[in-house]
Every structure is written in structure tokens, then in C-alpha cells.
Amino acid sequence: MSDIDERPHAPTDPRLVRAGQDGSSAADPAEWTCPVPLADSAAVLMGHGGGGAMSAELVEQLFLPAFRSRDGETPVELADAAVLELCGSRIAFTTDSFVVRPLFFPGGSIGDLAVNGTVNDLAMVGARPWCLSTAFILEEGTDLAELRRVADALGTAARAAGVRLVTGDTKVVDAGHGDGIYVNTTGLGLVPDGVDYRPGRAGPGDVVIVSGEIGAHGVAVLSCREGLEFDTAVRSDTRPLHGLVAAMGRAGGDIHALRDPTRGGLAATLNEIARDASVGVDVRERDIPIAGPVADACSILGLDPFAIANEGVLVAMVAAEDADRVLDAMHAHPDGRDAAPIGEVTANNPGVVAARTGLGGERVIDLPTGTELPRIC
What we know:
Layout: E1 17-19, E2 25-27, H1 53-67, E3 82-86, E4 89-98, E5 104-105, E6 108-109, H2 110-123, E7 128-139, H3 144-161, E8 164-173, E9 181-190, E10 207-210, H4 216-226, H5 242-250, E11 255-259, H6 265-277, E12 280-284, H7 292-301, E13 315-318, H8 323-331, E14 340-346, E15 353-356, E16 362-364
Parallel strand pairs: 7-8, 12-15
Antiparallel strand pairs: 1-2, 3-4, 4-9, 5-6, 7-9, 10-13, 10-14, 11-13, 12-14, 15-16
Helix pairs in contact: 2-3, 5-8
InterPro entries: HypE (IPR011854), PurM-like_C_dom (IPR010918), PurM-like_C_sf (IPR036676), PurM-like_N (IPR016188), PurM-like_N_sf (IPR036921)
Domain PurM-like N-terminal: 80-191
Domain PurM-like C-terminal: 203-349
């Protein structure tokens, strides 16, 4: 029997309360929601790797207590990359692992993802990517020709991103104890003076900007995995974003936070920022750019585009007075030509993300519990 508390939430739960026009709170029972409870399990589940609530639970309740320093402090702030002081310089440091299935999909491969995903984690703290390590975990019996294709794709992506591959490792596991090829990468980058992009800096009044159309990566991988065909080919958006971030920085605006909505999609990213900064986030659904074929695929398959992984899109929280300047810089860059303002950061309902629907209603965008599409990156 589960120990999950299944009692209904009281109307004072911030998820159930909407602020009135005069700032007062008004509880409307028709708009109450009950978040899905977390899985009560003694074993690792696929959802623990989905970038949603189960992933957060695993990190916060298992890893962080184990990794705390002697004085009880959390090792570093939880962000896409850690920013550390080293010999008078600010160094960004990140690591990531890639277990996507299949290895090759429309628009990319596990090799492209390994480079671009790591480069983008560095870029989200404003770093100029410098070098990467790469480690391959291979299953006995894997076709060497396929491994060569992955390695070639990884090397090509690194050269295109302007980063060096400087060290690595290879391990082989018994046949039947892996899934062909897994890749782990670690990245280092240099953070310029004065740059401070982190979720905790998002504040009321900030404009929420997304750099392009969402959902393409997840739908591309799913279509290849399940043999689905759509009227128009959907290709992954995997790409390095540090050039776009640099262009945004040169615009001179006050950028508070950057995140790339990978696992868990836009829903997870906005919820994480809202939680870390203790703010509310209001977005307008009709302003969020979604390609027609992606929207159609999500509608047919019953998927929420908010929760679909992306690999070439970023979310920015920018001071309102600087939003137009930053948007102009994004539109002038090939990786940001579809950038759009999609909402605002508010002081109301801290930790809650709400979306204004096309019909004028409002719904809460919850942190996904697990993952709609496992093994997506």
C-alpha cells in the first residue's frame, strides 16, 4: 500500500488560487487541479531519467544529501553548468550522458547530440565553450561501421561548434547488458566578466523569450523510432547555441536567465525557473512557436508539445526594458530568427507556471512527472 497522501488539496494550495484583478485571491473550484503524485518505488524507473518531477526527486532526495560538503552545504547551484573560480578566471564545467534510441534520426544522431547538448549547457551560463571530453560505453557485438558513423558525426559536430575534443575513454559491456552505444561528455568553457545567467535571477517583470519552434527533436526521434510518417518530414533541431547566446550578450541587454528545454521540454524548464527564483510565470499559448507538422503530430499522438524535448532552442528571461533589443539581436542570428516573446515573469503564485489558452482560459502547466518519450537524448 502506498504512503502517498491522496487527500484533496485545500483551496489555499497556490495551484488552486488565482489572483483577482485587484490583487486579491479568488478560488474557483472549476479551475482546481490535483498534481499527479510521484511514483512510490524502491527501484529506479524510466521516469527518473525524464527531466521532470521524478528526476528532481531523485536528485534532491538521494544525490544531494549524499554529495553535501562537510558543512552541510550543497556542492554547487543546480544549473546547466557549474561556474567556478579558477586561477583568476571563471570556468564553466558540465557533464552529460546520451542514451538516445535510435542512434540516428532525421536531422541528427547521438554524436551530434553529445556535442551540441554539452556545448549548450555551457552556453546557458554564458560561457564560451572551450573543450570537451568524450567517453563511449559500448555493447559487445556492436557493428564497428555504426560506431564509426557515430564517431564521425561527433567529430564533425565538434568542429562545427569550434570546440576541441581533448580526452576520452572507452568501455565495453557484455552483450545483452547495454544498448549498442552510450556516450558521456564533459565540457569546459570560459565565462566572460560581468556575465551572470542563472535561474535564480529571474524576477517579476522579466519578458520570457523562446528562441524558436519547440518540439521538433522529440517528434523527429519518435517518428523514426515508431516508423511514423507525416505530410512533411520533421527533423531534429539539434544545434549549438553559443553563437546565438553571444549575439544576445552583445546586444547589451540585462539577461537574467537562460535555459535549454531538453528533457521535460518547455514545461520542465519554466517550472524549474519558477521554483528556483520563487516567481510565477505566465505564458500565452498562441504566441509559442510550433511548426505545423509538430503540432499535428502531437495532436494525433496525444502528446503535449510543452513537454516534448528540444535540442536547439533556448528560453531567456530578460528585463522588460531590454527585451526588444535582445529580440532584435536574436532575429538577426540564423539560430534565433523565429524567436518570440511568449510571456512574463510575475510575483503572483510563486513556483507556478500558467498558460493563457487561445480561447481566453487559463491552465496550470505542471512539471511533468516522468517522461512522455523515454530515451530521447
